[in-house]
Write a structure and sequence with these properties.
The chain has 546 residues and is of the alpha/beta class. It is 32% helix and 17% strand. The chain folds into two domains: 306 residues, FAD/NAD(P)-binding domain (3-Layer(bba) Sandwich); 120 residues, FAD/NAD(P)-binding domain, CATH 3.50.50. The two termini are 19 Å apart. The structure holds ligand NA7.
Length: 546
C-alpha cells in the first residue's frame, strides 16, 4: 500500500504542464498528467473567442528550453492569435512526445496527503485512484472562470457564451443582436470582432479599462529570420527584465524630463503599442502624480479615437491608476464605438435588473438581444487550486488554509502540504511576467529540488511556517508602495465577492524572484524541512519496473 504508482502527478496540460512533463521525464521520473480538456493548451485551449490573442509578442511567448524548437517554429504575427498558439503547443506536445503522459478529459478531483507513506492519493473524475510521490499543480492562474449568474438568466431564450469556454465550432453573430458583459482584456479583444458581424452590439461596461493599441503586424520572412538569429541575446535580455521580455526597463522618472519630452515619449510608446506602454517611465506604478500624467495622455487618445464626446467620456477610466488593473491591448476597440450598430451601456448609471427571455432588463428599460456573451474574467491565481479538494497534513484543506489569503514559500510550496508544488502560484511573478518563461523557471526549480532529494536520499520537502511568514513579508515589502492596491482588480482578488484583498502576484520582477529562488536552493532548500521516508515511499515505480 505504501508504494507509489508514479513519481509525479502533473495537473493541467497547458504551457507549464507540458514543460513539467518534458523536464521531469527527462530527469528519469515517471509522470502522469491529467487534463480536463480533450487536447493540450490550457488557457489557449479554452479561451478561443474571436479576437483572442496574446499580449506578449510571439517570439517571446514561446519556450526557450530548446534552441532547435525556437528555430524550427515560425510565428506569423507580432502578437500570436489563440489558434496559432494552440497549434504551437500541439506541435510541442507531438515533437517531444508528451501526449503519452497525459490523460485527457479527466480532472483531478481530490488530492490527499498520506502522512504514513508520504504519498499523495490522487482521485480523478475518471474514477482512477493513484499514489504519487509528488504533485505539480500546473492549473494556470487564469483558468477558474468567474461566471456571474444574473437573476432570470435561466429563462433567457437566446444563446449564452463565456469567453473562457468558447465553443469549438465557429459562432456566427451575423444578423444577431448581441450583449457583451465585461470590458477587460477578453471583452476588449472580442468586441471589435463581434461589432463587425452583429446587427446590434450592446457593450455593458461596469468599469472602463485602459487599452493600448497592439499595432500588430505580420512577420516578413527576412525580419523573422533576423530576429530568430538573435534569439540567444533576446532570451538573455528577457531573463534580465522584470516582465520577462527583451525590453530593458527604463530608469528615467516622469518629472525628470520636461512636458514636451514626456509627451514625445508617451506618443512614441503609444505608436509602438502593446503592454509595455505603462513602462514609459520608471515611476508610473509607484507615484500617483506620475501616473496621473499618463492617465491624462490616454484620456486624450480616447477623445481622439471616439467621435461622440459623451461616449468617449464614459470610456475613460477614472479614479484608479493606469496599470493597477491589467492594461489591455486592442485592435480597433475604441473605434468600434463609432459604428452605428454599437451602443455603450454604462452599468453604474443604468444597472442590470434582470435577464428576461428576450433580453436584458436595465433600469432604463428592456434591451432586446439574441445572444449574451460573458467576458467576466476569472477567480485569478488561487481559484483553480482552491476549487480542488486538496487535503494536506492532519486533514487540513488548502481552501481553508488560504481562507485569509494565500501563503506560500516562493509561490511554489505551502506549509502543511509536503511535496505539493505550484507553478505560477500566488507569490510568484506569473501574470506580471512572461508566463512561458516563468513556467520554465519554476518547473526547473521544482525539478532541481526533486533531483536534490534523490541525491540526498530524501523523501520530500515541506515548506516551513517561518519561511512562509518571511516570504509574505518580503512580498509585502515590495508591494507596499505599489499603486496596484488602488483598483478593484483581479490582481488583488477584488473581482470575486468575499475573496480576501491580497496582492496575489510577486511584484519584485522576474530577475529578483529568480535570485530568491536560487538563494533558497543554494542553501540546501533553506526554509524547507527535509522528509525522510519509508523505503517503500522512496522507491519509485520506475525503480520497481527496472
Ligand atoms: P477581467 O480583466 O477580470 O475583466 C472582466 C470584466 O467583466 C471587467 O470589465 C469586469 O468589470 C466585468 N464584470 C465582471 N463581473 C461582472 C458583473 N457581474 N457585471 C458586470 N460586469 C462584470 O477578465 P478578462 O477575461 O477580460 O481578462 C483576464 C485576464 O486574462 C487578462 O487580464 C489577461 O491577463 C488575460 P469590473 O472591472 O470588475 O468592474
Amino acid at each position: 500500500m505504501n508504494q507509489p504508482d508514479v513519481d509525479v502527478v502533473v495537473v493541467g496540460a497547458g504551457i507549464a504542464g507540458l514543460y513539467a512533463i518534458h523536464r521531469l521525464r527527462g530527469d528519469g521520473l515517471t509522470v502522469r498528467c491529467f487534463e480536463a480538456g480533450d487536447d493540450v493548451g490550457g488557457t489557449w485551449y479554452w479561451n478561443r473567442y474571436p479576437g483572442a490573442r496574446c499580449d506578449v509578442e510571439s517570439l517571446d511567448y514561446s519556450f526557450s528550453f530548446s534552441p532547435e524548437l525556437e528555430q524550427d517554429w515560425n510565428w506569423t504575427e507580432r502578437y500570436a492569435t489563440q489558434p496559432e498558439i494552440l497549434r504551437y503547443l500541439q506541435y510541442v506536445a507531438d515533437r517531444f512526445q508528451l501526449r503519452s503522459a497525459i490523460t485527457f478529459e479527466t480532472k483531478v478531483e481530490g488530492l490527499s496527503f498520506d502522512e504514513a507513506s508520504l504519498l499523495w492519493n490522487v482521485g480523478t473524475s475518471g474514477g482512477e485512484e493513484l499514489r504519487a510521490r509528488f504533485v505539480v499543480l500546473a492549473t494556470g492562474p487564469l483558468s477558474a472562470a468567474s461566471l456571474p449568474f444574473l437573476p432570470g438568466q435561466e429563462g433567457f431564450s437566446g444563446r449564452i457564451f463565456h469567453t473562457s469556454s468558447w465553443p469549438h465550432e465557429p459562432v456566427d453573430f451575423s444578423g444577431r443582436r448581441v450583449a457583451v458583459i465585461g470590458t477587460g482584456s477578453s471583452g476588449i479583444q472580442l468586441i471589435p470582432r463581434v461589432a463587425e458581424q452583429a446587427e446590434a452590439l450592446h457593450v455593458l461596461q461596469r468599469t472602463p479599462n485602459f487599452s493600448v493599441p497592439a499595432h500588430n503586424w505580420f512577420w516578413k520572412d527576412e525580419d523573422l529570420a533576423d530576429a530568430k538569429a538573435g534569439y540567444r541575446e533576446r532570451r538573455k535580455l528577457s531573463w534580465q527584465c522584470a516582465a520577462g521580455t527583451p525590453y530593458p526597463t527604463t530608469v528615467v522618472k516622469t518629472f525628470e524630463v520636461d512636458e514636451a519630452e514626456r509627451e514625445r515619449i508617451y506618443e512614441q510608446r503609444w505608436q509602438v503599442g502593446g503592454a509595455r506602454f505603462p513602462r514609459a517611465f520608471a515611476d508610473v506604478m509607484a507615484d500617483r502624480t506620475a501616473n496621473a500624467q499618463v492617465v491624462a495622455f490616454v484620456h486624450g487618445k480616447i477623445n481622439e479615437l471616439v467621435t461622440d464626446p459623451k461616449v468617449a467620456n464614459r470610456l475613460m477610466p477614472q479614479g484608479y491608476p493606469l496599470g493597477a488593473k491589467r492594461i489591455c491591448v486592442d485592435t480597433g476597440y475604441y473605434a468600434s464605438f463609432n459604428r452605428d450598430n454599437v451602443t455603450l451601456v454604462d452599468l453604474p448609471q443604468d444597472p442590470i435588473e434582470a435577464i428576461e427571455p428576450d433580453g436584458i432588463r436595465l433600469a432604463s428599460g428592456l434591451v432586446e438581444v439574441d445572444d449574451l456573451v460573458f467576458a467576466t474574467g476569472f477567480d485569478a491565481m488561487t481559484g483553480a487550486i482552491s476549487r480542488m479538494n486538496i487535503e494536506g497534513r492532519d486533514g487540513r484543506q488548502l481552501s481553508d488554509t488560504w481562507s485569509a489569503g494565500p501563503r506560500t514559500v516562493l509561490g511554489v510550496s505551502v506549509a502543511g502540504y509536503p511535496n505539493l508544488f505550484i507553478v505560477n502560484g500566488p507569490g510568484s511573478p506569473s501574470v506580471l511576467s512572461n508566463m512561458v518563461l516563468t513556467s520554465e523557471q519554476q518547473v526547473n526549480w521544482i525539478a532541481d529540488a526533486l533531483k536534490y532529494l534523490g541525491e540526498h536520499d530524501l523523501a520530500g520537502l515541506e515548506a516551513e511556517e517561518a519561511a512562509q511568514e518571511a516570504w509574505d513579508e518580503h512580498c509585502s515589502s515590495l508591494a507596499i508602495n505599489s499603486l496596484m492596491f488602488e483598483a478593484d482588480s483581479w490582481y488583488v482578488g477584488a473581482n470575486i465577492p468575499g475573496k480576501p484583498r491580497v496582492l496575489l502576484p510577486y511584484v519584485g520582477g522576474l530577475p529578483r524572484y529568480m535570485e530568491q529562488c536560487a538563494l533558497v536552493a543554494d542553501a540546501g532548500y533553506r526554509g524547507f524541512t527535509s522528509l525522510r521516508g519509508t523505503s517503500e515511499a522512496a522507491r519509485t515505480s520506475k525503480d520497481q519496473d527496472d
